């Protein structure tokens, strides 16, 4: 008989269609490029290695953004508060209402990007000490911050640098150079600001990997932004940029698949909807036993 996991899968499918519609609405004539990039860069993680509460909260946040664009403050707050009942991280998105309404000069954005990268490459210990000194004074919350950010836990195993960070640095410059073109499109100011915020915050989430889930709220806009650049690049260079996007998508997809046991082999839970299921222990350990990737 259908059970919770069957319901879980159908909820995922519904949200998947919601994301598809959002990408189609915002990407214009570059839907297929945007959709393929989304599936390879973040779709696998969102819909297979599924952070369900985070995913539902992201969907409600996207509904809230419509009210941010139309400057309906209380409607925006209502949607964000509702999203926070699913995943508490949504509360940190309230400042988006004001942040994404302003046009910060490129020179300040570039300076911020360089500063953040330099600080986290050279002075990460300094940032750690600030976090510890400021937040540790708060009861309960300080202990959580120490666990998530400053101890040798799975949540604190971020990276100093990664190949993807180098790719994102190139894309950050491309976004700044084509800013006016993006902003003149559908919800262009929101899309550009969300794309740039994703790239600024990505460097921080490399060092504190628990923050990766917070950045997922903005990743789809980043993907839309870099795909919309196709229309601005001169025809003679366009095919090379499209080829670059294809390689970037393949790199992201392959690195996800080959660094965990989650994706291979892929099994279909729905085939057991009306038939006896293997035990939970057997299902839970199946990929760990049979995947060729990331075996301890």
Mind explaining what this structure looks like?
- The protein is mainly alpha-helical and 296 residues long.
- The protein contains 14 helices and no strands.
- Helix 1 (4-27) runs antiparallel to helix 2, helix 1 (4-27) runs parallel beside helix 3 and helix 6 (106-122) packs parallel to helix 11 (188-207).
- Residues 152-157 have low confidence and may be disordered.
Sheet/helix structural class? mainly alpha
From the alpha carbons, calculate the radius of gyration and give it in angstroms.
Answer: 20 Å
- Taken as a percent bin, the fraction of beta residues is under 5%
| General form | globular
- Terminal Cα span: 35 Å
Largest sheet geometry: none
Task: Pick out the low-confidence regions.
Answer: 152-157
Helix content: 55-70%
- Mean pLDDT score: 85
Order of SSEs: HHHHHHHHHHHHHH
Number of DSSP helical runs: 14
Number of strands: 0
Per-chain topology:
Layout: H1 4-27, H2 31-47, H3 52-69, H4 73-84, H5 96-99, H6 106-122, H7 124-135, H8 141-150, H9 163-177, H10 179-183, H11 188-207, H12 212-228, H13 235-258, H14 280-290
Helix pairs in contact: 1-2, 1-3, 2-12, 2-13, 3-4, 6-7, 6-11, 7-8, 9-11, 11-12
């Amino acid at each position: 008989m259908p059970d919770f996991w069957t319901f879980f899968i159908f909820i995922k499918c519904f949200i998947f269609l919601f994301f598809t519609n959002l990408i189609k609405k915002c990407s214009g004539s570059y839907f297929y490029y945007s959709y393929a990039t989304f599936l390879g860069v973040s779709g696998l993680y969102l819909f297979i290695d599924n952070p369900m509460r985070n995913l539902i909260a992201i969907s409600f946040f996207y509904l809230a953004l419509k009210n941010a664009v139309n400057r309906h403050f209380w409607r925006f707050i209502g949607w964000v508060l509702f999203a926070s009942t699913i995943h508490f991280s949504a509360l940190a998105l309230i400042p988006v209402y004001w942040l994404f309404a302003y046009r910060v000069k490129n020179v300040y954005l570039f300076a911020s990007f360089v500063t953040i990268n330099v600080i986290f490459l050279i002075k990460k210990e300094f940032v750690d000490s600030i976090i510890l000194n400021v937040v540790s004074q708060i009861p309960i919350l300080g202990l959580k911050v120490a666990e998530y950010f400053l101890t040798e836990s799975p949540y604190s195993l971020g990276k100093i640098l990664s190949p993807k960070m180098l790719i994102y640095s190139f894309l950050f410059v491309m976004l700044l150079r084509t800013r006016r073109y993006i902003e003149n499109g559908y919800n262009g100011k929101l899309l550009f600001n969300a794309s740039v915020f994703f790239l600024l915050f990505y460097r921080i989430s490399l060092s504190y990997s628990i923050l990766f889930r917070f950045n997922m709220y903005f990743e789809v806009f980043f993907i839309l932004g870099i795909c919309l650049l196709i229309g601005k690049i001169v025809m003679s260079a366009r095919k090379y940029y499209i080829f670059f996007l294809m390689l970037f998508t393949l790199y992201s997809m392959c690195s996800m698949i080959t660094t965990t046991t989650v994706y291979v082999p892929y099994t279909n839970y729905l085939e057991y909807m009306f038939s006896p299921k293997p035990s939970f222990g057997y299902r839970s350990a199946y990929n760990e036993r049979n995947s060729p990737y990331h075996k301890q």
